[in-house]
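quick one before i forget lol
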Amino acid sequence: MGLTLIRNADVLACMDDARREIAGGWVWFRDGVIEAVGTAADVESYLADADEVIDASGCIVTPGLVNTHHHLYQTLTRALPGAINTSLFGWLKRLYPIWAQYRPEDVFAATQLGLAELALSGCTLSSDHLYLFPNGVTLDDTIAAAQAIGIRFHPTRGAMSVGESAGGLPPDSLVEDEAAILNDMIRVIDRFHDASEGAMVRVGAAPCSPFSVSQELMRDAALLARDKGVMLHTHLAEDADDIAFSLERFGCRPGQYVEDLGWTGPDVWHAHCVQLDAQEIALFARTKTGIAHCPCSNCRLGSGIAPVKAMFDMGVPIGLGVDGSASNDSGHLLQEARQAMLMQRAVGGAEAFDPRDALYLATRGGAQILGRHDVGSIEPGKRADIAVWDMSDIRSLGAWDRVAGLILSPPAGARDVFVEGRAVVRDGDLAQVSRSDVLRAADRSLTRLMSLA
């Protein structure tokens, strides 16, 4: 790749340690790596060598956004009748039979659709939690979809092993043998995981939740992940039913449960954690255990408001997640950041959470909990994962503080998005795959699934 210069940004919001915001800023990158940033005063010396110059007048330039929790296969089951006004457990029971009909091509189409939506909203790195594998579905299907879109990807090999007959929540038809689960975790890690700096694919181990897998699988997955040098992910303390299940089934709260099984530490991140108490927050802060905060999904399912302000102030690593599209019905990370800020203000007052802190969670914070110290900020040596936001359009024009305005009045989408220095979105549209092809594949799978429902 040649030398690319993005210049004339109204503000370059670096999200580095100093949280620099450079008026009239520019960023210079080559071969997927940022080499320099600066102000308008010193840009002229770079112009002659640039292979491509991108004018960011009227725009904010930020690091690419990071999505730390998603179930991309769910993108084809948004706004499903019978699951619209239910809480978590009832919602899952309504959807399990439909998800049981998925084929590999459906998972590919749903994942590609969800990642396209994320990319258009400025996302450059997304995790994914696939925990059901009917009809020949494999994690490989999601990785192929991510490669088509061009986004940086952190899929996790999820699993469910405790069905209804054994006291779990999922139907028996969707659970797997635990030995087979562990063997497939080894297979996908060995085949796809790339630990190197700038990796486009990393793989994690992710038993679905305490109410769908055994304690033995949780413990074995942790041992396997640490042997392989990959991260661990699961759902935890999502709502009141989740807490009640843990107390009844295991005789302890979720924090104690995960600590006993080896599921704390900087190589672990948990989704939701809405119902953590003060002792559990202190545990996560002390062990640097990460949390994927999913505010829109938490609202949609009536799960509650996570104590993010307390977590943030205590130093718990936190990122943002849109969660499954069936429990959020949207995949726009700036809207997620806005919702995170608003919910903390709703319970803590107008000064409880600053828009810039919300942007930090959506960028640097998310990269941190995914173990990606090579992305999440704009500074020399970091990978060129960058989003350009046009703030002169209808949804954003009028914002005096442009950086705060990115959260308070978010644009519909990013104008340009670069991953590893390659354009994934240009002028508001997908750059590496045809939008019509993505929509056609998704519509084909949706039509088949609806005919079976």
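fyi The longest helix spans residues 435-452.
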